[in-house]
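User: Can you predict the 3D structure for this chain?
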Amino acid sequence: MVATTLKELHSFATTIGIKKCYYEGYKKGHPHYDLVKQWMKKKALDNGAILISSKEIITLFKENKIQASENLYRDYRKVDKEKTVDYPKVLKNGKQTHLMGYDNPATEQFLQYVNGVYGKEKQIKYFVYVWPDSASINVVENQKAYWLRCNKNEFILCLFVDRNGQVKNIDFITWSEKNYNPVLSYKGTVEEVVRKTWDYLESNWVRLEFSKFEFLTVRPSNTAFVLTLLANLIILSIIMSLFFRNIHEKNTIT
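Assistant: Here is the predicted structure, written as structure tokens:
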């Protein structure tokens, strides 16, 4: 099941009772819900969905590339910043908060350990953000759009927790193209789910290579541009000097 916007897609799925575990939003920029059971398809059609062919779906995504891409560079000015958290800053001592929206020192300590010990080896940065279970699942997409600086090696686990500290729903933010959907079925407390997720990531994490980011360009600073220009001029001057010196020596010998 697809839609022209993610908001419309999630809203319609909620309306007809399709759980988030059937959402495939991180595969080659084509967000959709897998309607694997007959009752799902029937309910979707009964509520106004239109049956279209695979060819028509491809055309839809081609005509709506920005919505389909799900990248982190959407217009952040349209994001409701009151429902988002700022990207965790790196402190002067080099530390960074990894658990956001929830006070649990043991879990934060575990995340510090995982990122400190395995981060470089696995090329991963593991964050956890917690919302109350009353929050809409759309806050994940809102947060994703707001975090413009998310890196290619990050996995951000998004948990929706009830008053008893039990995880009721799970989502995640990552640029990795690998399927991490098994973590969506985990149950337990925040600390238990965080540890279970890491157990899975430790064996299955695959960082997205920078070469995959065809839409990214790196613009040099003005200082870097001037220094590069000067270096090129100096190198060119040396080459020209050697060239004319060589000609002069040949003429002298002749």
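The chain has eight helices and six strands. The first helix runs from residue 6 to 15.
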